[in-house]
Amino acid sequence: MPTPHPTRGVEHCKCGDPIRKAIDPSTGERLYVNAAVNPAGPLACFTDDTGTLRCRTLGGDQPNPASFEWRAMRHFYTCSLPPNQRPRPAGRRRARRHPGLQQVLFGQPGGRR
Predict the structure, then answer these.
(1) What is the dihedral of CA 89, 90, 91, 95, to 10 degrees?
(2) What pLDDT does 30 receive?
(3) Residue 51, exposed/middle/buried by CB under 10 A (0-12, 13-18, 19+)?
(4) Are strands 43-47 and 53-57 parallel, antiparallel or unpaired?
(5) φ, ψ at 47 (rounded to 5°)
(6) What is the mean pLDDT of the chain?
(7) pLDDT higher at 17 or 100
(8) Distance separating alpha carbons of residues 63 and 53, to the nearest angstrom
(9) CB atoms inside a 10 Å sphere around CB 93
(10) Cα–Cα distance measured from residue 22 to residue 81, given in angstroms and rounded to the nearest whole number
(11) Which residues contact 41 (CB under 8 A, 6 or more apart)?
(12) Are 90 and 64 in contact (CB under 8 A)?
């Protein structure tokens, strides 16, 4: 069994459970995982050289975690809060338009004629 993962980066959900932010390297998706090791978890997690927690889904051609990975469960499935109050990590946000900062396009009200 691999050595326990470091506890650096552990936060607490509103439900009180310890969680960690992770990134799925294949999709770039950000997700929360339970900080505790779960032997039945479907994710294999490891901390890379920069200290970022990365997770991959077990199955297919790699059904078992490597020696440096530990099994984890997505917190979304174990959170005791109602679904509309569960934490979701912030992904990419849309750029906000500030009308005072952008030039008015040709042909629009207030633009050149």
Answers:
(1) 170
(2) 87
(3) exposed
(4) antiparallel
(5) -100, 125
(6) 77
(7) 17
(8) 20
(9) 6
(10) 20
(11) 34, 71, 72, 73
(12) no
